[in-house]
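Researcher: We plan to redesign the surface later, but first we want a full-length starting point. Tokens attached.
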């Protein structure tokens, strides 16, 4: 093979390799367009929610408002095809919708041209942050915990008193009690309960 032919072959291979890399890069970029738009919509939704919480209102122009307070960069307000995301307020101006119109820039469509939408309703008022049902559950758990701890404590105290009595000690202050002596503790005044007769009375 002549040197001129080898050179042409090398150039053709280089062109084919470069073209293959460009096509692969373009395909990868097309695959990431919609995930990128979805991530941007989430970021803008969060930024608008923070703006509403901080200033009490939603802006008419979200791009100027969010970039003006440095919540987002201007590039974050453009879709993967370089167009601003569509933005609309709800009738009560307490909620909003942000739309990416897809690759064709028109409403509707399929595939790459299908719309992507993110929206948020009115913010919850401070009094509704904790639902009554959640509050009742929390109170119930607290009550059950208190009852459980009280029962465990009472049982442990009764067991401790019985052990001290069997050891010949006052169950209250652990003062040594004389066997067969007085039924009262000379140290703290605790008195031994009188024995009870559980036998049925003669009928």
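Model: Full-length starting sequence:
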């Amino acid at each position: 093979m002549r040197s001129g032919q080898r050179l042409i072959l090398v150039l053709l291979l280089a062109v084919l390799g470069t073209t293959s890399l460009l096509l692969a890069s373009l395909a990868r970029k097309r695959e990431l367009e919609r995930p990128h738009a979805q991530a941007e919509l989430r970021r803008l939704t969060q930024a608008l929610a923070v703006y509403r919480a901080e200033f009490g209102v939603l802006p008419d122009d979200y791009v100027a408002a969010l970039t003006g307070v440095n919540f987002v960069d201007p590039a974050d307000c453009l879709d993967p095809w370089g167009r601003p995301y569509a933005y609309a307020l709800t009738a009560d101006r307490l909620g909003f919708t942000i739309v990416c119109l897809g690759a064709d820039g028109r409403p509707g469509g399929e595939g790459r041209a299908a719309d992507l939408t993110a929206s948020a309703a009115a913010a919850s008022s401070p009094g509704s942050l904790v639902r009554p049902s959640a509050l009742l559950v929390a109170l119930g758990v607290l009550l059950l915990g208190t009852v459980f701890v009280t029962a465990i404590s009472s049982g442990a105290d009764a067991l401790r008193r019985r052990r001290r009595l069997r050891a010949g000690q006052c169950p209250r202050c652990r003062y040594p009690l004389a066997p067969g002596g007085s039924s009262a503790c000379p140290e703290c005044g605790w008195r031994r309960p009188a024995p009870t007769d559980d036998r049925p009375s003669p009928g």
